[in-house]
Amino acid sequence: MKILVIGNRDRYEKFAPVELEKRGDALVFCRRGAADGELLAAGGDAGIILADAIAPVSRALIEKMPGLKMIHSEGVAYDKIDLQAASERDIFVCNNKGCNAAAVAEQAILLMLALLRKAIAGDREVRAGRQIQMKERSMVEGIAELGGCAVGLIGFGDIAKATAARLGAFGCRLFYYTPRRKPKETEEEFGVRYAALEELAALSDIVSVHASVTPETAGLIGAGFLGRMKPSAFLVNTARGEIVDNLALREALVAGKIAGAAFDTLYPEPVPADHPLIDLPESCKDRVIFAPHLGGITTGSFMRAHKNIWQNVGRVERGEEPANIVNTGISR
Question: Is 31 among the residues known to form the active site?
Fold first, then answer.
C-alpha cells in the first residue's frame, strides 16, 4: 500500500522501527506546508497519509484520494486534519495518544521551576556580574517553592495525569478542570480535586494548560479567566497556543494582573518577532519565559510514536482496525 508522508524524512529514517527502503517507491515524502496539488501529484493514489502534527490535511485533499484508508498524525494533536471529511468516507484518523505524556510533563515542571526561581533573569544577571545584587533582591522579594504551590490543571488527559503524578512528589496541592468530572477513583489515584474553571483560576498559584484545541477551548484563557487569577500566580502553557488569548494575556502581564507566564507553544507558529507576547515592554519581559515547542519531541517520544505509527500501518494493510482512532461515525 502506498504511503504519503507529510513531514520530515529524516525523522522517519531515524525513528522508524522498520526498514523504509523495502517500501521503495510506495513511500513518498512531501514537505510540511506543501500545497494540495503537490501532495496529490506525489501521492494521490496513496492508501495512507502520515502527517506532521501541525501539517494540514484538508477536505479537498481527502476527497481527491480515492484509495485513502487512514490518516495518522505523527504526534498527539490532530486538529489540522479535517475529521468530518475523513469520517464521511470511513477513513480512519489516528494519533499517538500518550506517547509524549512523560516528556511534556517534564517540560511543564521545568517551566514552573524556571518561573519560580527566575532562571532566565538569574542567568543573565550572573553573566553581567550582578549575581550578589540579584541574590539580595530575591531574598527580599521572596521565592516560592514548587511544593508549596497550588497547581491547577486545565484538562486531565494523559499529559495532565503525568504532570499530576510528578507534582504530587513535590507535595503540591492539585486541582483540575474538565467539562466532565473524572471518576472518584481517578481523582484519588492522582491526588487531585475537581474545581470549576472560575474556582481553579482563583485557587491556583500556577495554572498549567493541558487541554486539546477545540472550538470550546480556543481562547479559553482570556480576560475573564486571567482576571480571576491571583496577582502572584503564574500561567504555564504546554498544550496549544490557540487556547490563550494573546492580547488579553499581554494586557494582564503589562498591568501586573498575574506574576508571569511560560510557554512551550504560542499561536501562531512559527512565532513572529512582533508577536504580542514576545514584543513586551521591558518592565515585564523578565516575567515571561519561552521554549521553542520542545516539550514533546524527546527521543523517547518519537520512538514510541513511530512504533505506534508503523504498527497501525501494518494493521490497515492487513485489513484490521488500527489503534487510537480519534474520529467517530465511521463504519467499522
Answer: no
Q: For the domain with range 101-290, which CATH number is right: 3.40.1160.10, 3.40.50.970, 3.40.1260.20, 3.40.50.720?
A: 3.40.50.720
Catalytic member of 72, 173, 287, 293:
293
State the architecture of 3-98+299-317 in CATH terms.
Answer: 3-Layer(aba) Sandwich (3.40)
Round to whole Å and give the CA distance between 49 and 38. Answer: 14
Q: Which three cell numbers stand for residue 157?
A: 488527559
Q: Which of 189, 269, 320, 321 is catalytic?
A: 269
Catalytic annotation on 293? yes
Set 72, 173, 210, 240: catalytic member: 240
**pTM of the predicted model, to two decimals?**
0.90
Here the cell at position 267 is: 499561536
Does residue 72 carry a catalytic annotation? no
**How far is Cα 47 from Cα 69, in angstroms, rounded to an integer?**
5
**Over its length of 332 residues, how does the chain's per-residue pLDDT go in tens digits?**
999 999 999 999 999 998 898 899 999 999 999 999 999 999 999 999 999 999 999 999 999 999 999 999 999 999 999 999 999 999 999 999 999 999 999 999 999 999 999 999 999 999 999 999 999 999 999 999 999 999 999 999 999 999 999 999 999 999 999 999 999 999 999 999 999 999 999 999 999 999 998 999 999 999 999 999 999 999 999 999 999 999 999 999 999 999 999 999 999 989 999 999 999 999 999 999 999 999 999 999 999 999 999 999 999 999 999 999 999 877 65
C-alpha cell recorded at residue 263: 510557554
The C-alpha cell 498524525 sits at 73
